[in-house]
Amino acid sequence: MTEQEMWQAVLNNDAGYDGVFFYAVKTTGIYCRPSCKSKPPKKENICFFETSEQARKAGFRPCKRCRSDLIDYQPMKQIAEDVKCKIEKVYREQADLCKKLNEVGITGRRLADIFKDEYGMTPKAYADHLRLAEAKRLLKDTDKKVIDIAYSVGFGSLSAFYSFFKKEEKITPSEYRRESKNKKKTGDFRHE
User: Are residues 34 and 1 in contact, defined by beta-carbon separation less than 8 angstroms?
Assistant: First the structure.
């Protein structure tokens, strides 16, 4: 790889070159990953290294922004994992869920984008997925009243639960329960 190719990767903040090389800025004494979002330095003030260890040995310190000292530093992935854990803990309580997601410290839109990039769905869709799975389990495995199940999985009303369940499963919760009981008898059930 030529210095010009490396310089172009720095200018493009190309994450595809992270771990392939590092660049250091002589005027600041800092070394970075090619994907670092800091303002690009002047070309004459940089030098390139194959490893972060070489940059450190040459007297440069790691960038605090791109964390060039951490090979597997993936802040967006970490945010998405943290949000996923929060949702799994409090998906049944809408107010608690909103509070926990606000604690992340980024806008709802940005949080949704980060989560969707990592898991292919928004935080709300993931929470709904968990609610639905738990509701289906309770309908199949317990004799709880449908209204009690609705409230236990985080719905504020029976009608909201029925509407959501029917939209997702194409049958009502009561019909799902009946089919579940029939499955136990016949071993054939279309909604798993």
Answer: no
Q: Does domain 3-62 have CATH number 3.40.10.10?
A: yes
Cα separation of 120 and 116, whole Å? 5
Domain definitions of the chain by residue range: 3-62, 75-125, 129-186
**Rg of the chain in Å (alpha carbons):** 25
- 129-186, CATH topology level: Arc Repressor Mutant, subunit A (1.10.10)
Q: How does pLDDT run across 142-168, given as a tens digit for each residue? A: 999 999 999 999 998 999 999 999 999
Say if pTM beats, i.e. exceeds, 0.70.
no
Catalytically active residues, by annotation = 32
Q: Could you give the angle at the alpha carbon of 99 between the alpha carbons of 73 and 82, nearest 5°?
A: 20
Closest CA to 114 of 72, 70, 90, 82: 82
